[in-house]
Design goal:
- 78% of the residues lie in helices and 4% in strands.
- The chain is mainly α and 228 residues long.
- It has two domains: 33 residues; 191 residues, Arp2/3 complex 21 kDa subunit ARPC3.
- The protein is globular and about 50 Å long.
- The mean pLDDT is 82.
- It is found in: Cell membrane.
- Keywords: Cell membrane, Membrane, Transmembrane, Transmembrane helix, Transport.
- This is Biotin transporter.
């Protein structure tokens, strides 16, 4: 009888140990999953923060009639909006603005610090936040329509996806223009229509950049879907 009790007690101890080990393993796995779930979106957003900064520091092309130069920023913003969720895309721009305000020369013309937010480009900087959010949201909505209406892997669907991405990029550019023109008008004490006319040089370049970003993201759609 005593031997049986000892045997039962040993079995209980082993069972409890295995149960606790399993629970601990599950807890560790759960924590690792939570960390990964937070780290991956942050890494994606930060990557585009770096790319936006690099696109600005790569150089700027001045346009006669406006103090705001042409840069590759809108190309990277379109790529961010088309590949990230709207929260991730907005986070990437906010981090870009934060490091610029902190003193890194990542704004157009090598400018940095809070002084840059008192210049004629302030409207465009603010517009980046809302523009990239618009790109991501419009892209998500239009992509849902395309996926629901057309069969998978058809040639027509690939062109439709490109069209959806291009439309989203154009909408984002228009949002950026709206904020940029109003901000520049307030800073320079000029009517918005005059700012818009002087800024027509942006249009062709931004259409080309929207087309490039849309083509890249539409072409890599399968890879993005597998890694989602």
């Amino acid at each position: 009888m005593i031997q049986q009790r000892k045997t039962i007690r040993k079995k209980d101890i082993v069972a409890n140990f295995e149960s606790n080990s399993g629970a601990n393993s599950n807890a560790v796995a759960s924590k690792a999953f939570d960390i990964n779930r937070l780290a991956v979106p942050f890494a994606k957003a930060f990557l585009f923060t770096v790319l936006i900064s690099a696109a600005t520091m790569a150089g700027a092309l001045p346009i006669p009639g406006t103090p705001v130069p042409v840069t590759l920023q809108t190309l990277v913003l379109a790529l961010a909006g088309l590949t990230l969720t709207w929260r991730q895309a907005v986070s990437s721009v906010l981090m870009y603005l934060a490091i610029g305000a902190a003193g890194m020369p990542v704004f157009a013309g090598g400018k940095s610090g809070v002084v840059a937010f008192a210049g004629p480009s302030v409207g465009f900087l603010v517009g980046f936040v809302f523009g990239v959010a618009a790109i991501a949201l419009v892209k998500s909505a239009l992509e849902g329509v395309v996926n629901a209406a057309m069969p998978e892997d058809s040639v027509a669907k690939k062109f439709a996806r490109f069209g959806a991405y291009f439309a989203a990029s154009v909408v984002g550019s228009l949002v950026i223009y709206a904020f940029g023109f109003v901000g520049q008008s307030l800073m320079m004490h000029l009517p918005v229509w005059a700012i818009a006319v002087a800024s027509t040089g942006f249009i062709v370049g931004d259409i080309i950049k929207a087309a490039i970003a849309s083509a890249v993201c539409a072409g890599l759609y399968g890879a993005f879907k597998r890694n989602a």
